[in-house]
Description:
Layout (H helix, E strand, L loop, with lengths): L1 E6 L4 E5 L4 E8 L8 E4 L4 E3 L11 E4 L1 E3 L4
Antiparallel strand pairs: 1-2, 1-6, 2-3, 3-4, 4-5, 5-7
Organism: Rhizobium leguminosarum bv. trifolii WSM597
Protein name: Putative nitrogen fixation protein FixT
Pfam families: NifT
Amino acid sequence: xxxxxxxxxxxxxxxxxxxxxxxxxxxxxxxxxxxxxxxxxxxxxxxxxxxxxxxxxxxxxxxxxxxxxx
Length: 70
């Protein structure tokens, strides 16, 4: 699914246009966020692609929804 990741005044948020859902990121698997799983406030786990550390935000990426942390 397409996910737009952006930085807001509080932290990071994810917007899924197909679901019309915007939620805050509450936990990340990797400190640099890219190439790992992020947990959003509604409980979704999203697997993000590997991108360079200096990738600017906002950015739309292809994210996979997961059922658990593995």
